[in-house]
């Protein structure tokens, strides 16, 4: 009758089924455990464990759940997927007289292109002279221009009659 010897200890089993059952007691043996806080992953070799540790060294930690990521793109994807958080960079328009804060690079680039267009509309109310690149902004301004009701403008309007 064949005996089954354990490769981890000196135990010997009579049957293969007993041997398999005994191997369960050594399930954790031969695995290298990560000791990084909140991790505890196990690896079959020290080489794999070392590769894993390098990910922790980058210190890209999800402050919500404690998981680590080796690159910012992975962390952002994780936050969007598991925590429904959008980490969109905000851009402040550097153009004079524009206090816009735009979310996202593509939206910022679209916004900034507006500043490059030539002025096509100018308010004719005396004392105003504001310029606009598009008709919608100009139309809105004309309705609420503070110079529209000024004495200077009303006198100017009277002189045209």
TrEMBL record:
Keyword ATP-binding: no
GO molecular function: zinc ion binding
SMART domains: ZnF_C2H2
Name under which the protein is recorded: C2H2-type domain-containing protein
The keyword Zinc is assigned to this record: yes
Pfam families, alphabetized: zf-C2H2
Domain of life, per lineage: Eukaryota
Domain C2H2-type residue range list: 32-56, 60-84, 121-152
Organism, scientific name: Loa loa
Localization (cell): Nucleus
Major location (coarse): nucleus
GO biological process assignments: regulation of transcription by RNA polymerase II
Keyword tags: Metal-binding, Nucleus, Transcription, Transcription regulation, Zinc, Zinc-finger
GO cellular component, one term: nucleus
């Amino acid at each position: 009758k064949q005996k089954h010897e354990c490769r981890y200890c000196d135990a010997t089993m009579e049957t293969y089924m007993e041997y398999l059952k005994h191997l369960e007691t050594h399930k954790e043996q031969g695995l290298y455990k990560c000791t990084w806080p909140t991790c505890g992953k196990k690896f079959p070799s020290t080489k794999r464990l070392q590769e894993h540790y390098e990910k922790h060294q980058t210190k890209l930690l999800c402050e919500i759940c404690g998981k680590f990521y080796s690159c910012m793109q992975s962390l952002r994807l994780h936050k969007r997927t598991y925590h429904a958080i959008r980490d969109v960079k905000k851009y402040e328009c550097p153009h004079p007289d524009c206090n816009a804060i735009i979310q996202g690079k593509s939206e910022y680039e679209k916004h900034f292109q507006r500043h490059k267009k030539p002025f096509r509309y100018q308010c004719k109310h005396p004392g105003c002279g504001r310029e606009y690149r598009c008709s919608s902004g100009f139309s809105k301004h004309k309705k609420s221009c503070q110079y529209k009701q000024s004495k200077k403008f009303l006198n100017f309007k009277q002189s045209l009659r």
